[in-house]
Amino acid sequence: MLWQQVLLLVGVLACSASPIFIKASHVHPIVMAAVRLLMACAILAPLFFRDWRRHRAVYTREHLRRTHAPAVVLALHLMSWSWGARLTITVQASLIVNLAPIAIPFFLHSIVGEKINRTEVFGTILAVIGVLVLTARDAFTGGGDVWGNCVCFGSMLLFAWYLALGRKHRDFPTIWLYVVPIYLQAGLLCLILSTPWITSSLVGAPAREWLLLLGLACVPTILGHSLLNQAMRHFRGQIVSLCNVGQFVFSGIAAYFIFHEQPAPLFYVSSAIVVTGIALVVFSAPTAPPRLR
Asked: How distant is the alpha carbon of residue 105 from its chain centre?
C-alpha cells in the first residue's frame, strides 16, 4: 500500500508540472496542444496495437466512433488550458482547472443519469464562491487575471465533461484502446486549427522548445494521467480526486522558484474555501469501488 501511495503522489506531482511547461515555452497554445497530443499518441501507440491484437474480436468501429466526441472536448480543453495558464499566475490557474470534481456530478447527471445530492450542490456553490472572490480581487485591483480566471474555469468545465464521457465509455476493453484514438483525433484537430501558427512556432525552434514539448507530453500527459488512472484501482475515487486537487500546491511552489510568482494574501483564503467545497463534493459521492478495466 505504501508503494501505491508513493505512485499516487508522483502522479499528482507529474500533473502539476503542466502549467510550468506551458509557461516556460513560447510556442503558440494551439500548436502546443497539437504537438503534446500527437507526441503522446506516438509514444503510446505500441500499447494500443498490443491491446488491439488481444481484443480485435470485440473492438469494433463502433468503439472508434464513440471516441469522436471525447476527442473534440479534450482538444478544446487542452487548447484553452494552454492559453489560460499563461494569462494568470500558475498557482491560481492550477487551482481553478482542478475544480473538475465539483462539475463532474452535474455532467454525469446529464450524460448517464447519476443523481446529485444536496451536499454536492452546497460544495459546488462554496467552491464557486472561492473562485468568484479571486476574480473579484483581480477585477478591483487591476491584476489583469480576470480573463485568465474565466478561460481556466471554462477549460475546467471541458475537462470535467471529458472525464464524464470517459465514465460513460468505461466498457472499452482497455484504457489504451480508448485514450490513444482520442489523443490522435484531438491532436489532428488541434493541428488543423493551428495551421496559421505552425511555421512561426516550430520552424527553427530551439532544442529547448522541443524538450519542453516532449516534457509536456511525457510528464503530465502520459506519466501523470497513467499513474492517476492506476491509483483508481487501489484507492477510493474520492481520495484520488481530493489528492489531485493538491496539484496547485506543487505548481505554486515550483512557480515561486522558477518564475518568482507570489500570490496575493487573499488567494490563501480563497483557496481554503475552494478546497473545502471540493472536499464536500468528493466525500459526498458514493463509496462503491471503481470498476477495473
From this structure: 16
The cell 490513444 sits on which residue?
Answer: 180
Query: What does the pLDDT read at residue 293?
Result: 36
Residue 246: exposed, middle, or buried by beta-carbon count in 10 A (0-12, 13-18, 19+)?
A: middle
> Are the beta carbons of 149 and 92 closer than 8 angstroms?
yes
Angle in degrees, 0-180, between the axes of helices 29-55 and 176-193, rounded to the nearest 10: 150
Instruction: Name 68's Cβ contacts closer than 8 Å, sequence gap at least 6.
Output: 185
Residue found by looking up cell 450524460 in the block:
111
pTM of the model: 0.87
Q: Tens digits of per-residue pLDDT, 101-145?
A: 888 888 888 887 878 788 888 888 888 888 888 777 766 665 557
Mean pLDDT for the chain overall: 87
Query: For residue 63, how many C-alpha atoms fall within 13 Å in the half-sphere facing its CB?
Result: 19
- 47 Cβ contact partners less than 8 Å away, ≥ 6 residues apart: 176, 180
The DSSP-derived string for 25-94 is --S-HHHHHHHHHHHHHHHHHHHHHHHHHHHTTT--HHHHHTTHHHHHHHHHHHHHHHHHTTTS-HHHHH
Residue whose C-alpha is closest to residue 205's, from 35, 20, 82, 15: 35
- Neighbouring residues of 90: CB distance < 8 A, sequence distance ≥ 6: 19, 20, 23, 251, 252, 254, 255, 259, 261
- Amino acid in the structure at residue 23: K
Average confidence (pLDDT) over 133-159 = 79
